[in-house]
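Margin note: ligand = adenosine-5'-triphosphate.
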Amino acid sequence: MEKYIQVEDLNIGYGKTSIANKINFSIPKGSLTAIVGINGIGKSTLLRTLSGMQPPLSGTINLDGKQIADYTSSSLAQKQAMVLTTPIATKNLKVAELIAMGRHPYTNWLGTLGSYDKEIIKQQLHIFSLEDLKDKYCFELSDGQMQRVLIARAMAQETPLVYLDEPTTHLDLSHKVHILKLLHRFATKHQRTIVFTTHEVELAIQLCDYMLLLDGKENAFAAPCELIEKGSFETLFPKDLIQFDARTGSFKITK
Ligand SMILES: Nc1ncnc2c1ncn2[C@@H]1O[C@H](COP(=O)(O)OP(=O)(O)OP(=O)(O)O)[C@@H](O)[C@H]1O
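Resulting structure:
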């Protein structure tokens, strides 16, 4: 297994305050990984730390054989794309224009799109079922449509690594499944390494290659079936409220 991202004894937080520590995992190239855990446990903080947006309190993050801190911001931009939950300031662009921004690392200073860039944009519009919306302004879109556009822009960037913070929050169940299946396809077919945070634990169990269960204690990391065998999901939520059924891989309300 080629280790693409290797995290050792990572401690994340703000200033002197540690949010989560003892985080250890290795992710191979071309895999889909979900980071799950209860509200406020540190999923977004971890994603921001992994991407180099904020420094770790201690520990190491190695990306493709090099410490993340040793990358320049421009070499990191060619290596990774990031989709955040924060609203973007560019909603007065049309859908196709926003997706075209994903090609900016490859265009000249005028942002002139070449035929390959245009082909990639067309492909993303098709893959994310956005063809009918391509000439709409982003401010005219629903939250779920906007979420798909932002993921399409990240994919248009064609970076080997993509981080997404809660990419399915605003989507209905069918679109959630559709997006996660697409992400899985990008990982397996195009060898993209994709890491995302989510509250969709049951969908992640079915669709991801690996999961990191941030729980403030063990922070278990493995393939979903391995985590089920180890009983790791049983302690993810308070047992008096929700219990995990290992047979079906789903959660049941405690009655
Ligand atoms: N900029 C910040 N400065 C200080 N503390 C912060 C900052 N951002 C987040 N925190 C704190 O860090 C902790 C983890 O927040 P984070 O957003 O990483 O959690 P999360 O697991 O992504 O939560 P959710 O599921 O609710 O999105 C929380 O206690 C939060 O209050």
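The longest strand covers residues 3-14.
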